[in-house]
Every structure is written in C-alpha cells, then in structure tokens.
Amino acid sequence: MKEEMSSVDIRYIVKELQWLIGARVDKVYHNGDEIRLKLRTKEGRVDLILQAGKRFHITTYVKEAPKQPSSFTMLLRKHLSGGFIDAIEQHSFDRIVKVRVGEYTLIGELFRRGNVILVDSEDKIIAALRYGEYKDRTIKPKAEYRFPPARENPLDVSLERFIELMRENKDLELVRALARKLNMGGMYAEEISIRAGFEKTTPVKELSDEDLLRVYEAMLKTFNDEPKPNIVFKDRSMHDVVPIELKIYEGFKKRYFKTFSEALDEYFGGITLEKAKIEQTKRLETKKKQLLTTLKKQEEMLKGFEEGAKVNQEIGDLIYANYALIERLLEEFRKATETLGWDEFKKRIEEGKKAGNNVALMVKGIDPREKMVTIELEDRKIRLYLNKSIGENAELYYEKAKKFKHKYEGALKAYEDTKRKLEEVEKLIEEEMKKEPNVRRIERKKKKWFEKFRWFVSSEGFLVLAGKDASTNEILIKKHMDGGDLYCHADVYGAPHVIIKDGQKAGEKTIFEACQFAVSMSKAWSRGVYSEDAYWALPEQVTKQTPSGEYLGKGAFMVYGKRNWLHGLPLKLAVGVIDYEGEDYVVCAPVDAIKTHTDKYIVIRPGSLKKSELVKRIKHLLEKWGYKVREEDLNAILPPGGGEIVEVVG
Known about the structure:
The longest helix is centred in the middle third of the chain and has 62 residues, at 260-321. By secondary structure, the protein is α+β, with helices and mostly antiparallel strands. Among the domains are: 7-139, Roll (ibrinogen binding protein from staphylococcus aureus fold), CATH 2.30.310.10; 449-649, no CATH class. It has a six-stranded antiparallel β-sheet, with helices on both faces. Strand 3 and strand 4 (55-59) form a beta hairpin. Helix content is 40%, strand content 25%.
C-alpha cells in the first residue's frame, strides 16, 4: 500500500494547484508532521496540507488543532498569515515542493522522514520542523538552505544524455537502469518499460539505440500524459493513488476523480482517519490487553484454590472414612519409631516393601524432623503426624481447605472486579469507535452564485440579494439586476445595494422585508440605531451616469426619478436554517422572512455584545438544534457590529 507521493505525483499536483496562486493565507496549523494552510480563494475557503515525507494536496480531512500552538506554528503564522501565494513549484524532479508567500518560501521535503522548512528571500532558514547536520547541508536557524544533491531530471535530459546514462552499466536490467539513473520509482520505470514494448527485466546491453529511443519517448509521454486521477483497489482495499492511467494496473478495480487533489485526499485522508481511530482507542486497547492478562492469571489462581480446597476437604473426609485403619497405622508407627528409632524404622519399611508387606507399600515418605509419615490411600497421599491424634490430623486438612476457600473467595472478588473493569473498558472502546476521531472531514458544497452576496428568501418566496462590499455591490447591480427586479437602498451612507429578483411581481410584504434588510445591513446597525428609512426604485432608475464633473467610485450608483420611501423601519433580524433549492443554508434575514421557512430561529437587534461573542452564542444555540456551523460562516452573514439576542424560538 502506498505511503507517500512519488516525484511524478508531485509533478502533477503542482501543475494542478496553480489555481491557488493569489490565494490568501488566513491561518497556519501544525500537528505532528503536518502543516495545514487555511486559504481564502476565489472559489471559497480551502485547506492545503503539507505532510513531511508524505504528501501535498488540498484536503477536507482536518485534524483537531492542538490547544497550545507550537513555537513552529507561531513562527509560520507570524510570517505567512495574511500573505498571498505567489508561486507553487516542484524543485527539479525531486520530491520537494516550494510554496512562496511574499518574501518567504515554505519548503516541503517529501522524501524519507521529510521536513518542512521556512526560508526568507535570501534562502536563510527561519524555522524548520526538524533541525540537523547532514553530509551535504545543515538545517538550522539563520543557515543558508541548500537542496539535497541534484539528481538527473528525466524531463530535462536529452536523448544523447539518456542513452549515455543507460549505457553506463550495460548489465543492468531496463527497469533498474531507469529507476536508478533517472530519479523515478520502480513502478514508473516498469510502466515505461511496458509502454515502450519491452520486458522490464531486459538487460540494457540487448537494447539498440533505436530501442532506447522508444524507451525515451515512452518516458516523456508518461510524464506528460493526460491527467486521469484514480485510486487503485486490490482485494477491496485501496492499494495506490495515481495521476494518470497506468498499464501496470490494467484489470484492477479503480475509482476516478475530477482532480488529483481529490484522489489524494480520499486516499491519504482515509488512511489518516483510520490511524486516528486506532490512535483514539490505543490507550484503552492497551488497558484491555492488561486486564485480559490479569483475568487469565486470576482464572488460573481460582482453579488452583478451588482444587486445593476440594483435595484437602476430601483428604480430611478420607481420614474419617478410614478411621480404624488410620488410627491403627498411627499407633503402629508411633510404637515402631519409639522402639526402633527413625533410621531403623525407615530401614524396616524398605525391607517390608521388598517383601510385599501391604502396610509398608502404603508408605510414600518419612520425615523424622516433622515426625511425619506420608501414606497413599485411594490414590490420595495423606500426611500423618505421629505426635497428633487422628482428629488433629484430619483437622489440619480441614483448616487447609478453609484457607483455600477463603483465598478462592478473595480471588473471586478480585476476578469479578477485573471483569467489571474489562466490561467498562470495552464499553469505552465501543463509545470511542462511535465518536468522530480528532480528524473530521469537511464537506464543502460548491457555492452557488447568490452566496457571493448577502441574501435571503422573502416570506412570499422572492430571492433578495445585497452587496457585501464595494466589489460585490458593483457586481450585483451590473451583472445581476434585470428589468423585472426592484432596487432597494437605505438612507444611510455606505449602505449595501439590495435587489429583489422578479421584484415587480412581489407584494408589499417582500418590499418591506427587503428595505428592512437594507437598513439592518448598513452601518446604522453598528451605531446602535433601532430604526432607519429606506426606499425602493425601478432598475432603470439606477445608473453609473453622473452630472458633469462628478465621479462615482467602485460600488456607487446614482438613482434618478421617484423614490418610494418607507420610514422608521426597525433594525431587527433573525438567524435560522432554511431549505432552499434542496440544500440547507444558515441565513440572517428579517424575522417574518425567516419564520416563514423555519420554526426555529434566533432574533437579534443592535446591542452592546461584541460580534465575536454574539457569533459564539448563536453557534451554541444552532448546535443544540443539531446544526454544525463554523463561526466564520456566521460572522459573514451577520450585520456589521455587535448586537444582542432578544428572542429564541424553537
């Protein structure tokens, strides 16, 4: 299974990501070997991931950022945040990418363990993920950054140089010669061999110059092939991700993607998600393993204690069951040892065994020090202490049985406790597996044209649009206002232009809501005003034409003719989630417009609460209703300035 991107992969992804040039770096995150740049592009927000030694692409799989940013994170944010991407390049044909942001360059080394290095305009190292001294270069602050020693670039090599390289070691197989001499992996060397029509094991010495020309042309075609990103599956599992169609994977199941970035994200993102799930339960799995080991030991102890109690109880009972015999043996053994002494007693027992004496054959051991004789009765060995009565001998076994029973009870309690702990850990593992890991996937739908503006759907079902700034005000009037629309504007300097699509068919309610939207989204909100005036007019009354000598800036328009005024419009809005054209959107709009489309909403008006705090409170309320909304998205739809929540419905 593929673990990192190849030089060919990097060539294709760098070409594909050229559309990111001009993107603004909003923020930088660092987690382990991964650097994530949060970018603002013309297409919306995207996350660009650079993982040392592994990968480089746009991602929708986002790891939870550490609560305490690392010093490396802070340095990257200091120098890159707020800057714009000027270039994305691959160094030669190596597994090295360069992202230039203003006068700084972020270098990602994707070979071996890898590294991420930030350098200034003079190639002096500002910071690095890892520092170290190597044979050909040094990675440390203020040192000059040097690339690893250059290797042959297959895209720049001439035919003459190519043949020369191939002939340097004629005994090499074709696939090995390509891989070693021309900085490409074995897989692509094999692919080129197939495309050229040769077995990969063909020795170079068997190839003519014409044959090598075919290999050379196949190499150039492979590395300049039409992109066809796909994930290759083997035994139902992801096996590889490649930017082009490869002959070596003919017959394999594949899944194709529009972009190579999407394919890489699905492939590496899936791996990341799986690793995150494993990591999430790793500590609990270790605990589970320890508890299972303890449980096994406790089970063995319980068996031992149970067996010990049983055996000793049975021996005690056996003594009483053979009372007459045991009592007679005790009496005989006492007399013999007292009369003959222990040495002679032992001697007589051995002689008796040889003679086949039944009593002697019962004796299995003699211990003079303990004054004890071990006999075997009904396959049980019984220790008889000659200085104790039959009852006292039996009691010794009963006492042992009791001790084993007590130990068994204690061990059983510990065993049950371990079982309970194991069940708790298994439940926690199950819960953890159900939880989203600290890697989440961002599902970004493609923005629709109206999302470039502030917008809402009126209570009568009309689409109402407002500019966000001078640029979107200009675009809204010039590109999106048609003859059948209505134009609205607040009597406030710097207020947004508002249009009602097909507004000339709309009723008074929609016009009122659009004008209320115009005053609420104006600077009047940030001044804490509770009401303002607005008017509506026809599209043909709105123009860029000015009286002689006057000039209108970007986003400004003149309105000629009759203005239809609405006075004392309240600055009051509501936030809710509505369904529009089959998708859910979080919208901020006049209260009547919102409550027509949803039964859960939050009413706001100008107030003393900071906008950032207002956003957090609204976000919390939406989450209680099951909607996950980013703070930045809420920030974009709310009016300028602070406010307060006056009502929560739902």
